[in-house]
User: Fold these one by one.
Assistant:
Number 1:
Amino acid sequence: MPVYLIHDDTVTAHTTSRGLPADALLIRSEEELAASGLSLPRLTALWNALPGVLSKRFKTRASAVHGLWTGLQKLEPTPPPAEDSTPAISKQAQVIVLLRREQGASLDEIVAATGWQKHTVRGAISGALRKRLGLTIESTRTDAGRVYRIVDAG
């Protein structure tokens, strides 16, 4: 059974209530919609915001509740959020992981990992890592090119 999310002036259908905003109104039945306390003008505005419906004015709150509930049941539910428990790691964090390795990381390795251009990598190392985060970064030139490494202070 789908759950309908009323947030601001939009209504969306979902297959589960997991992960939905806490400040939104969740509706599972016509009775819950009737008990929600939404005013006749608000119910009418929600009806008129539904996709593919003609604008309408309801005479009573009961007819608005019934009409809106009928319209809600025609909405296609959005799929539930993915079960990925690992949060996405930022590109800056990826660079830090590479630079914390004992051998460090070459400019080309960082470019390949982040998709950034070389000047962006150099700017991130100089600005974000050295200046903003205060990390001590060692830069050495090798036959393979420039290699950067975070030096632990202590």
Number 2:
Amino acid sequence: MSFGMEEILIALIVTLVAGLVHGAFGLGFPMVATPVLALFTDVMTAILLTLAPNIAVNLWSLLRGGGWRESVARYWPVAVWMLVGSGVGTLILVAMDPNPFRLLLAATVVLYLLSDQLKRVNWGWMRRYPGPSGAGAGFVGGILGGTVNVGGPALMIYFLELRIAPLVLVQAINLCFLLGKSTQALTFAALGLLGLELLWLSLPLAITALIGLRVGMWIRERVNADTYRGWLRGLLWLLCILLVVEFFREL
């Protein structure tokens, strides 16, 4: 697919805004960029366009803030499961319609957000069994990231339940994203789906995304932990709405 100047300008604006959101929340780049870019391309092209920007913002988010080695040492198993799930999810994306996964993801996130009201739903088992639950969150997040480019909510539920510090949460999630997106890029390359034009176009998009990321980080550094967690819950509600809209739009 060829891109005119108007499409390139739109893509630059979208990646700038998506980078800002990712910087403010520690995640969100693909959840913002993919559906908007898919409006004038298609889902797979949108995912391919955002691979390099995704990897760039994930790497910067992981390394910034100090203590990232401790976060990697503690949560690398979750990232490995994300890697496995991402490979499986990318194969699903190529082979079948991934649209139903959007509705399944939205339903799961709503169940989590309403768990305080639904007293029978207890997510405390994640804290009691962090190893198995982390493996499940990583694998499910990888499959969702590979199919619909939205693996963040599954990881957010897990890490929010662990009640770790915001900086560690951001580093752990971006470690998982980094391995997941790198695996997706290698899978696309192995399948011969990474065209040279998309690669060249993704490089300036990556630079633009990093500019937005830095602005978002500046915002995040000026809020306390409780406010930050409240923002994350609000973001999850917004993502649920967007996932349902996208599901019906793709029918």
Number 3:
Amino acid sequence: MRLEGKKVVSLVHHDFEDLELWYPILRLREEGAVVHLAGEQAEKEYIGKYGVPAKSDYSYSDINGEEYDAILVPGGWAPDKIRRFPEVLSLLQHFEENKKPIGQICHAGWVLISAKILQGKKVTSTPGIKDDMENAGATWYDEPVVVDGHLVSSRRPPDLPDYLREFIKVIEQK
């Protein structure tokens, strides 16, 4: 139980990449972390790209970054929706300013781009948004996981074991 006493918020919206949402949540819970899901609305069921549901505990606006140790942004098509909420962008900026762990995988980089927190960062993502990441000021690497301080990024579902191994380490150190 390496993460006993830690609280993590994971963002959710329709068309999330099922594995990229659930695998991190389950691994963090296995390590003892409390993980809450935040969506556009509280207590709403969101459906992943492959039909797996996820019910939000809270709305984005309910989340106070001071109460959480880390944040996760899943991939899929959900990031294109998630990044449209000013409260999400403010939340990510809070985590960045306070150097709290931020996990992002696949298309989740879009949310960090919209939050304007990638300037000078080392990252990875799905190759499909490599140019977007670089245009936001990041240096992009084609690697399973890239750790730049408190920011942990990954490319796609086959990289999930590497991603969570590193994300858990970063949370432990905070």
